[in-house]
Amino acid sequence: MNNKVVKTKNEVIQKRSLLRSDSKQKLLTFSSLIVMFIVFSLASPNFATFNNIVGILLSTAVNGVLAVGVTFVIITAGIDLSVGTVMTFASVMTGVFIAFWNLPIIFGILGGLAAGALCGFINGSLIAKMKLPPFIATLGMLMMTKGLSLVISGTKPIYFLETPVFRKISMGTVFGIPNAVLIFFAAAIIANFILTKTVLGRYTYALGSNEEAARLSGINVDAWKIAIYTLGGLFSGLAGVMMASRLNSAQPALGQGYELEAIAAAVIGGTSLSGGEGTILGTVIGAFIMSVLINGLRILSIPQEWQTVIIGAIVIMAVYADIIRRRQR
Length: 329
Known about the structure:
By secondary structure, the protein is mostly helical. The protein has 13 helices and 4 strands. 77% of the residues lie in helices and 2% in strands.
């Protein structure tokens, strides 16, 4: 009995320590965002203008939705390299439904979401059932969706000229704030609820913490892993619809490279590549850090090649910080 009491006390202490560590991580990340914003504001008078801030919010919306989706996957100790091209594939399918087949806009939106979810389902099935490494499975999906987007569209953009209302999905405004930003915040709130209040969220952390222990405890690991990747694909589909609406066209050559920014946002926000740790709030902050950084460097006229170097260095530092934090625990 005494051993059980001691064990319980140790578990409680450990959980409290983890909560304090997570809180410190969020506070540090948010403080970094504030400091970055102040520095760029002092460096350029054009940075803190209303139009530029709206531009930052708008650029964060699509990348943020992708990052929210990939957060679920990374928490399971997986990776999804296909989110960018799946986003493009979803936008192309939205164009096919609306512009080619002349279906109502709602069917185009649902078609884009379904296309993203289907790609996620295939990724999850390849990983869970065929036991392919996530890196290989999602890399293959990246190449497949990139090619399919070009084939289906005939390598040409698909324009939504006959449905001007479609553009308002992302570019309509509420009190000057683009709808895309509001959709991003809504998606983040829903994702946070799923991750913290549902069985899917609990099993997401369980798979990332110790997959074998989860299997031995009776969890259907394969089924839940497929569900998690499908959810990630659904968020990529949403990002595809938002991107198509923002550009008022489906651009089949767009997409590759977005996965790196999405993964970087999640990692900077505290999601561990080792699995078992991460929050939606942290990812949202990480997405804003990425957008503020890129926007600030552009305003300061930093060459594109150096922007890439700086972003890469920050990602490396974020991953190293996660390694140090885990060693301390």
